[in-house]
Design brief:
The chain is an alpha+beta fold. It is built from 13 helices and twelve strands. α5 packs antiparallel against α9, α11 packs antiparallel against α12 and α12 runs antiparallel to α13. It is globular. The structure holds flavin-adenine dinucleotide (FAD). Flavin-adenine dinucleotide binds next to β2, α2, α6, α7 and β8.
Length: 334
């Protein structure tokens, strides 16, 4: 591991200032905030992340969950994943979020992992993490070993000729279906980004994953009030029952009235280069009868643009079945 300097921030302003100052003082300086450390320290040990400065944000007042100004909820960037999953207010209003969180990692990891760190967790693509193979995300311009290599777990939606790495998060898929907003604090002030605009497609620059600028700190996320009379749920399919990332997952929010779908929000995990919202599926669902035929048509629409590689072609059918099962289950929820 290469040496780095370490600072503990005592205020939000100071955290943003420390990060911005280091970025401007030293060309090529890589500053990283450290929260739970469950992803960052792994990647530092592997030599994939090589920050020159770490800013510890664990002492900042960002660990609260509370009501938002619009009747929704506000969740601090340092809220641990386990606390978010078990918060009674969130559980009642947004079951999909709790289910997604509890399907991820292990209890120990969820006790450490934070909202901000989960939003920014990096791909589990083997070639990104091995620090030897060609990887445009880790080393821009070096190529993508996954294209011709082992890519069974990698993405089929939103890919480019430069990268097929999957966004691994479960929480982010639920946040997509809930229309969350990410709140950001930087030296130049504060801004809010709808989660649908937060993640970038890989295109020719897979190393750029989000719209965050160097030194910007995520302070919290907000969730709008749940859709009236809606029900929601998360289904994750994986190689083993726990402690494993999704091969395919689906987050679903449905409003059903008199057997008709009035409102729908659908997001997929394990298959996209970013947490994957599917307006195509939602278009099919809204205004249609809440029947098996509709679920099937929605799944067909969600995967219509899939571009699989030989080893992950099975994900097209798997993701369809995952979404159909999630829609069926959520529709039957009281
Ligand atoms: C064995 C294992 C299994 C796992 N399985 C799953 C799984 O099944 N599903 C799943 O979704 N996840 C899984 N994870 C990933 C886990 O959810 C993440 O490691 C965790 O959410 C990261 O949170 P953290 O607080 O530890 O982040 P850190 O490691 O502290 O930080 C991660 C990144 O976020 C940045 N960062 C953190 N907070 C902020 C902030 N407030 N503002 C700006 N930048 C910030 C850091 O600089 C860093 O780049 C697994 C992890 C492990 C190790």
């Amino acid at each position: 591991m290469q040496s780095f300097s370490f600072n503990r921030a005592t205020s939000i302003n100071q955290a943003a200032h420390l990060a911005a100052a280091a970025s401007t003082a030293q060309q090529g300086a890589q500053v990283r905030f450290i929260a739970g450390g469950t992803t960052l320290t792994d990647l530092m040990k592997l030599g994939v992340e090589t920050p020159t400065q770490l800013v510890d944000i664990n002492h900042l007042p960002l660990a609260d969950i509370g009501p938002g100004s619009d009747g929704g909820m506000k969740i601090g960037a340092l809220v641990r994943n386990s606390d978010m999953a078990h918060d009674a207010r969130l559980l009642q209003a947004y079951p999909v979020l709790s289910q997604a969180l509890l399907s991820g990692a292990s209890a120990q990891l969820r006790n450490m992992a934070t909202t901000g760190g989960n939003l920014l967790q990096r791909t589990r693509c083997t070639y990104f993490r091995d620090n030897v193979s060609a990887c445009n995300k880790r080393q821009p311009g070096s190529g993508c070993a996954a294209m011709e290599g082992v890519h069974r777990t990698l993405a089929i939606l939103g890919t480019s000729d430069h990268c097929i790495a999957t966004n691994p998060s479960d929480m982010n898929v639920a946040l997509m279906a809930l229309d969350a907003t990410v709140h950001i604090h930087g030296e130049r002030g504060q801004r809010q980004v709808p989660i649908g605009e937060f993640y970038l497609l890989p295109g020719q620059t897979p190393d750029k994953e989000t719209v965050l600028q160097p030194g910007e700190l995520i302070t919290h996320i907000t969730l709008p009030p749940p859709l009236p009379n809606s029900r929601s749920g998360y289904l994750k399919l994986r190689d083993r029952a726990s402690y494993e990332f999704a091969l395919a997952s689906a987050a679903v929010v449905l409003q059903i009235d008199n057997g008709q779908v009035r409102g729908a929000r659908v997001a997929l995990g394990g298959v996209g280069t970013r947490p994957w919202r599917s307006p195509e599926a939602e278009k099919v669902l809204i205004g249609s009868p809440a029947t098996a035929l509709t679920w099937k048509a929605a799944a067909q629409a969600a995967l219509q643009d899939a571009k699989p590689h030989p080893e992950n072609a099975f994900k097209v059918e798997l993701a369809k079945r995952c979404l159909i099962h999630a829609l069926t289950t959520v529709a039957q929820t009281a």
